[in-house]
Every structure is written in C-alpha cells, then in structure tokens.
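[SOLVED] Need 3D model of a two-part complex

Original post:
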Amino acid sequence: MSKPLYGLMAEFENEHQLVHACERAYEEGYRKMDAYSPLPIEELHHALHIPDSPLPKFVFVGGLCGMMGGFGLLYWIANIEYPMNVGGRPWYSWPQFIPITFETTVLAAGLTTLISLVLLCGFPQPYHPVFNAPRFSQATRDRFFLCIEAEDPNFDMQRTRQFLSTLHPADVAEVEA
Amino acid sequence: MSASEAVRPTLDGMQKRFLIVGIVGMAALVALGLSDMTQFYRSYLTAFLMWGGIGIGSLGLLMLHHMVGGGWGVAIRRGLEAGTRTLPLVFVLSIPLIVGMHDLYEWSHAEVVAKDPILQHKSAYLNSGGFIVRLIIYFAIWIGLATLLNKYSEEQESAGYWAVRPKLQRVSAPGLLIFVTAATFASFDWMMSLEPHWFSTIYGAMFVIGCVLSTFAFNIALARLLTRQAGMENAVPRQTFHDLGNLLLAFTMFFAYLAFSQFLIIYSANLPEEIVWYLRRMGGGWGAVFALLTVFHFAVPFLLLLFRKNKKQPAMLASIALFILFMRMIEIFWEIQPAFAHDKEGVPQPHFAVHPTDLTALIGVGGIWIAFFFFQLKRRPIDPMPLA
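Solution:
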C-alpha cells in the first residue's frame, strides 16, 4: 500500500519557466497549487490568481488606532488627568502632541503588521508536507518549484504527471502527505 | 522612425500652446502691473520661485540620480536634463528681482536700515551689491554644473553608459554639496530676507525639498504624457510608475516633516521675534490657507499615495502629481505674500488678498518656462538611455 499523497512537485530552473508553468496549470483548470521561489516574483501573483491580501487594511486600522490612542492619551494627560502649566502654554497645545502621536501610530501599525502577518501565514506550523519533496531545500537557493496538490478535483496521478512533463521541468517528484 | 521622432509633433504642439499661454499671461501681467509696480514684483516673485524652482530642483534630482542610480531616475532623466537646461532662462527671469529689489526687500532702503540697529548689523550680508553678486554666483554654479552634466550625458550617448558614468559621478558628488549650499543661501536672499528680522535654519532645506517635490510632480505628469504617445508606451514601465509614486510620497512627507519641524520649534518657544512669521501667516484670513495646505498639500496626497492601486495607475498618479504641483503654487504664495502686509506705519497687519497679477504672473512665467522646457526636451533623444 502506498503512502497518502500530498501532490506532485515540478522543479524549474528559472522564474520565467515557473511563471509560464503556473499560467498553463491555471488554464488546465488546476486551482489547488502553490509556487515556491527563492526570490519574490511579481507576476506569480497574477499567474496563480492569488487574491489581494487583507494585510494593508489591518495595518491601516492598526495605525489609525495607534494615532487616536496616542493623541487621546496626550489630550487626557495634559487636559484632564494632570494639567501642568508649562511656560503659560495652552493646555491643548496640539502641535506638541504630534511627534508622540506619530510614534504611537508607527508602533501600532508595526505591531499589527507583525501579528497579522504571522496569523495570516498560518504560523506557527511545525509540519508541512512540501518539505518531503527530495530537492525542496533548493527552493531557498536557485530552484523554482510548482506543487499541484492531490486535493485538487482535477488531480490525476497519470494525467497531471504527463501535463507537468510538457512544461520542461528539471524534475517531477511525488510528495508524501 | 524612432520613438523619439514620433513624439516630436506632440511636443511641438505643447511648446506652441504653452508659449501662447505664456505670452498672453505675461502681457496681462505687464498690463495690470504697470499701474502698481510694487504689486507686480511681489506677484512675480511667487511665480519665479514656483517655476524657476523646477529648474533648480531638476539639477539636484539629476545629480542625486547619478549618485544613487535606480530605475526611477532612468525613466525621468530626460526630463530632468531638459529641466537643468532651462536654468539660463531662469537666470534671465531673475532680472526683475534685481530691478524690483526696492519694492521687495526693505533692507535695500538706506533710510530703513539707518533706523534699525538689527538691519545695521546684518548689512554686511544684506546689501544691494551683495544680493546681485550672490545671485550671479548661484546661477554661475548651477548653470556650470548643468552644462557639465549635459555635456557628459551627450558623450554617454555615443561612448556607452558605463564608460562615462564615473565622470558624471565625479561631478555630481561635490556638485550636490555645492548645489544645496547655493540653494540654501538663495532661499535666504530671495525669500527669508523678505522679513529681515526673522530667521530659521531649516528654511534652506525646505526650499530645496519644495523645489524637488515640484520637480518630481512635474516629471511624473511628463512621463504620463510621453507614455501616452505611440511608440513610447513602454518608455516608463508600470513598475517604475509605482516607484515614482513611492518617491513622490516620500518627498511629500519629507516636505511636511521639515515644515512641521519649523512650526513645532517656533510654536513651542513662542519667542516674539520668531512667532511673528506664523502670526502673519495665520491671521487675517491666512489661517484658512494654512489649514488648506495642511489638508491638501500633505494629508490628501499622503493618503492617496499610500494605496498601491493609485501608484500603479499612471493616469491616477499623474492626476495626483498635477494636484501637488497646484498646491505647491499655493504653498509658495502663502510663504511669500504675507511678508508684505504692513499698515501705513510699517506694523505687520495680516490681511489675505489675491491680486489679479498673482494669477497672471503664475500663468505667464509658467507658460514661458514650460514652453522653453519642451524646446529643450526636444533637442535631445527622449526615450530612456539604454544601460549599455
């Protein structure tokens, strides 16, 4: 009895082949697939039809909260909780609140980025089957991979393997789940 | 026919149109200004700083590009170089500053200086002869640098990009230092000395970055115009528009940062000799302009430029750039004009007013400068220089 299968992993020698392979696989009707590359490739986003990340919206809201929180804090301290006369300035000296407001905006936006990125990426994740592919460590060096997952309704061991081999991969390997 | 040749008729058309606008604007400026020469020079100064500033900013950005490289500079380099070649015209346009010195700068009046001990102490620097000599030195420096850079750039066309690049860098590195120093003193002479008692050390940086911001906005609009022409569609790639948008955002923020730094320090100290600059610019109706600038010179462009979609769409980015260019005019107007509001005894009396000559000066000088810019742009190839 063979072990359960995660998918088929094709290896490519450059990013153009990878982008082309992703486009072709999408045209063939494959949807459950992912590409792995040692460098960011702008076109991959379009080739795989990955929806836009909600991250910017989270960061914007996070920054907004930091901004209002920082300004609110200063207003509360200087006007309500502990009003202090500094050289006869008005209590509500808003220009002097701006630098701190800026800092809290950046701090909150930065922390929101870090936390939402970790969560959106599905971390922490101690196990992922793609690392079972024999040459996958090359994905952080100089090789480009496309993995079509067995869960895809169009997936068929024979046909998918044949399709991948038409894309001139350097290698096609089975990936155990 | 190369792409450069194909856009030539469009550029000819632009040059002609702006020349007509410029001549009509100048004629209106002179017609309206003859009855009130003082107002004529005051309006003219705003227009000179706005459009001449793009020539000055072009030189700084071009040298910055030679030093740091980058796709953004390759894409707008032709526009920057054409901008530096307008500096001789900007020099000619600066003549009214000398002719109208007495209408603009109170330190140029001997009887005012005689009554004012502060101006007496400053007169070693702030005097008519020094003003003229320094103005000539600034332009000698800028035009000299521009000439060298354009000469080497022409060499680069035939000898190859990498062969001539070291030469351009050898000029640009010390050039940037000299350029910024000259521009700082120019801003002291032309703008800060309008209120000769007042001083701010960040003022020069604000002037330089203001010029660079205008230049950047102008060149983004130009890139959009060029890439709409047949054969030039790929002269500026989409990704580069995104980069240009990011840099426009950076310069918008940089200018706001400098402007706010000056405001915060002066607000916090609240010293009579410093705070007067803001009192003049926030009272008598000018406060509304100050609020308008905060929102539309900074906040709105800042928010629009945060979104990637707006930066990747050349049409949208060019609209934002043109809007910033428009706000630059109001910003300079707000910096210059309140300096002149005095009552009969010479006591500052802020009072917001727009004179017809303010508009005709901006249109007239702008038309002539832009027409000359297109004339200079056409004289050299327009598509980006290949990196080989």
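Edit: Chain B has one domain: 3-378.
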